[in-house]
């Protein structure tokens, strides 16, 4: 991530803080992103919180359950998608 100039922001009545757009873009943060806030002395360090593996697994299970798909069907669909993407990117393999 490239360095940014210091930015100022105002804390609103409900405790909300708007992170300036340029900083959000540099940090790949978008609406709904979760951040970690760490107090360090009289300062705060705000960093994007990345989804941990266990949380990603829980979210994947919820999505599978809601969609009615099985892991097998999902994996087969991914294989098909990868195959199509490979063909689009590299074409079909010529036999010699």
Topology:
Layout: H1 21-26, E1 35-40, E2 43-48, H2 53-67, H3 71-90
Antiparallel strand pairs: 1-2
Q: What would your notes on this structure say?
A:
The chain is α+β, with helices and mostly antiparallel strands and 96 residues long. It contains 3 helices and 2 strands, in the order αββαα. The longest helix has 20 residues, at 71-90. The chain is elongated and about 65 Å long.
What labels describe this entry?
2 domains; alpha+beta; single chain; elongated; 43% helix
Assign the structural class, choosing from mainly alpha, mainly beta, alpha/beta, alpha+beta, or little secondary structure.
alpha+beta
Task: Sketch the topology as an H/E string, one letter per element.
Answer: HEEHH
Q: What is the gyration radius calculated from CA atoms?
A: 21 Å
Helix content, binned percent: 40-55%
